[in-house]
TrEMBL record:
Protein name from the UniProt record: Olfactory receptor
Organism: Panthera leo
Domain of life: Eukaryota
Keyword check for Methyltransferase: no
GO MF terms held by the record: G protein-coupled receptor activity; olfactory receptor activity
Location, primary (coarse class): membrane
GN (gene name): LOC122214084
């Protein structure tokens, strides 16, 4: 591609999933439904935790933060896509695109950090139950969340500022439903070597690091559970972290599947479709995973909505 007036690029086109006009109402209805379920479900979790004093514990404190981040994570991409479908416009401005990249990275990495902090919480609860309230005190819980936010903000700011140094070619079509960082780098006409180094280094440190912490926590949890004599005791102990483990597997497996499939097919359209799993489906399913197997959450939700929860 021959670069034109690169620095003057002010708009991009989000190509989305399909250009077929007859599919647009179906796509709009599907994503609007998933977005509303995500927001409503996670808001219920936040309300349940904040309104029930029995849920004022570290585990539910982190869960409420995760629900808040999931709402923000989904709100970074889906509303813009819905507006574009409704107005039959694919345009997103340069400033909006950089802003979307910033918040997408911020909330995606914050999801990872919160999942690792929640794994540490389950590790302390199961492996050091007598010291749990001392170790997981309110000050430490608040500090863990605060440090996570600070690291995520700094990383997002770095990635966004690195994007500002790039110039773009006349080809401004993004084969995705949001401004995905890797897709944007492929559109750039200027040298992206430094951007790629920063992106992959951040992925290893801020993605791989917390994942290693999760694996370590669960290796210790499994060892502790194996030491319990009765099968009933093992099941009861494991059930306290089953929901979190399900969410971790869902989030990491879908994200890994997206990038493996996109690397295998080299198709941006396939990557966009697959990325729906971790950007939309996972945040939508999290409230169901945490509520359906949790009596405390179900009883709190019952008091809020006034009906029996499954």
């Amino acid at each position: 591609m021959d670069p034109g007036n690169d620095t003057g690029t002010s708009e991009f086109l989000l190509m989305g999933f399909s250009e077929e006009p007859e599919l647009q109402p179906l796509i709009f209805g599907l994503f609007l439904s998933m977005y509303l379920i995500t927001v409503f479900g996670n808001l219920l979790i936040i309300l349940a935790v904040s309104s029930d004093s029995r849920l004022h514990t570290p585990m539910y404190f982190f869960l409420a933060n995760l629900s808040f981040v999931d709402i923000c994570f989904t709100s970074t991409t889906i509303p813009k896509m819905l507006v574009n479908i409704q107005t039959q416009s694919k345009v997103i401005t340069y400033d909006d695109c950089i802003t979307q990249i910033y918040f997408f990275i911020l909330f995606a990495v914050m999801d990872v950090f919160l999942l690792s902090v929640m794994a540490y919480d389950r590790f302390v609860a199961i492996c050091h139950p007598l010291h749990y309230t001392i170790i997981m005190n309110p000050q430490l819980c608040g500090l863990l969340v605060l440090l996570s936010w600070i690291m995520c903000v700094l990383n997002s700011l770095l990635q966004s500022l690195m994007m500002l140094r790039l110039s773009f070619c006349t080809q401004v079509e993004i084969p995705h439903f949001f401004c995905e960082l890797n897709e944007m780098l492929q559109l750039a006409c200027s040298d992206t070597f430094l951007n790629n180094v920063v992106m992959y280094l951040a992925a290893v440190l801020l993605g791989g690091g917390p994942f290693a912490g999760i694996l370590y926590s669960y290796s210790k949890i499994v060892s502790s559970i194996r030491g319990i004599a009765s099968a009933k005791g093992k099941f009861k102990t494991f059930s306290t972290c089953a929901s979190h483990l399900s969410v971790v597997c869902l989030f990491y497996c879908t994200m890994l599947g997206v990038y493996l499939s996109s690397a295998a097919t080299q198709s941006s359209h396939s990557s966009a479709t697959a990325s729906v799993m971790y950007t939309v489906v996972t945040p939508m399913l999290n409230p169901f995973i945490y509520s359906l197997r949790n009596r405390d959450i179900k009883s709190a939700l019952k008091r809020i909505v006034g009906v029996q929860v499954m």
